[in-house]
């Protein structure tokens, strides 16, 4: 398996989304592990700003040359921003999943849900357990 980037400052869902808390909002994307497993991403479908989702609910779709996968909300909340650049450049998810490849920003309905997410060490163990 290729080297996987798992930044320490982020939180992670067991569904392979990452979360970064930034000025009261929560930025969400898919992890390096997820984008490597998917392969070349060719299409990203994201919700519009204002849409609300519960934790674990599908909020979008990522399509690659290998598969189509749902994006699951790592926390509940309202979408306050969408990375519209992914419409024209879905490959940004492969190139920089933790930077330009972010998906949406949520206003969390319950900020305490962030505490239930995995830290980098727990997520690394989660990935390694699936790779054995």
Walk me through what this model shows:
- The chain contains 4 helices and 9 strands; from the N terminus they run βββαβββββααβα.
- It has a single domain, classed as OB fold (Dihydrolipoamide Acetyltransferase, E2P), CATH 2.40.50.100.
- By secondary structure, the chain is of the alpha+beta class.
- The mean pLDDT is 95.
- Strand 6 and strand 7 form a beta hairpin.
- Strands 1-2-3-9-8-5 form a 6-stranded antiparallel β-sheet. A 3-stranded antiparallel β-sheet has the order 4-6-7.
Structural class: alpha+beta
CATH architecture: Beta Barrel
How would you sum up the global shape? Answer: globular
What is the strand tally?
A: 9
Biggest sheet, in brief?
Answer: 6 strands, antiparallel
Name the average pLDDT.
Answer: 95
CATH class: Mainly Beta
If you consult CATH, what is the topology? OB fold (Dihydrolipoamide Acetyltransferase, E2P)
Distance between the termini: 10 Å
Tell me roughly what share of residues is in helical segments: 10-25%
- Uncertain segments are none
Radius of gyration: 14 Å
Briefly characterize the structure.
The chain is of the alpha+beta class.
List the helices and strands and how they pair.
Blueprint: E1 11-12, E2 17-22, E3 25-30, H1 32-38, E4 41-45, E5 52-53, E6 58-64, E7 68-72, E8 77-82, H2 85-88, H3 92-95, E9 104-108, H4 120-131
Antiparallel strand pairs: 1-2, 2-3, 3-9, 4-6, 5-8, 6-7, 8-9
Features:
alpha+beta, OB fold (Dihydrolipoamide Acetyltransferase, E2P), three-stranded antiparallel sheet
């Amino acid at each position: 398996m290729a080297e996987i980037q798992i930044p320490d400052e982020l939180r992670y869902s067991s569904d392979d989304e990452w979360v970064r808390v930034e000025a009261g909002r929560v930025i969400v994307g898919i992890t390096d592990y997820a984008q490597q497993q998917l392969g070349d991403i060719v299409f990203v479908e994201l919700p519009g700003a204002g849409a609300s989702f519960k934790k674990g609910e599908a909020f979008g779709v990522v399509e690659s040359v290998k598969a189509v996968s749902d994006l699951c909300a790592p926390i509940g909340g309202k979408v306050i921003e969408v990375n519209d650049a992914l419409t024209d450049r879905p490959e940004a998810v492969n190139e920089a999943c933790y930077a330009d490849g972010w998906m949406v920003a949520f206003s969390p309905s319950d900020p305490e849900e962030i505490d239930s997410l995995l830290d980098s060490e727990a997520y690394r163990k989660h990935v390694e357990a699936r790779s054995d």
